[in-house]
Amino acid sequence: MFLQHLADGILSGAIVSLGAIGLSFTMKMLRFANFSHSELLTWGAYAALVFLSFFSTFGGFFDQTIGPFSFGLPLLFAMACACITTSLIAMFLHLYVFDRLSRSAGHMTMVFASFGVALVLRHLVTLIWGSDPIYYSNELQFAILLPGGVRVMPDQVFLFGLTIFTVIFLHLFMTRTRTGIAMRGVAESPSLAQVSGVNVNAIILWVWIIGASGAAMGGVLYGMTIQLRPELGFSLILPLFAAAILGGAGSLYGAVLGGLIVGLSENLSVMIIPTTYKPAVPFLLILLILFIRPDGIFGERKR
Question: Cα–Cα distance between 31 and 25 in angstroms, integer?
Answer without folding.
Answer: 9
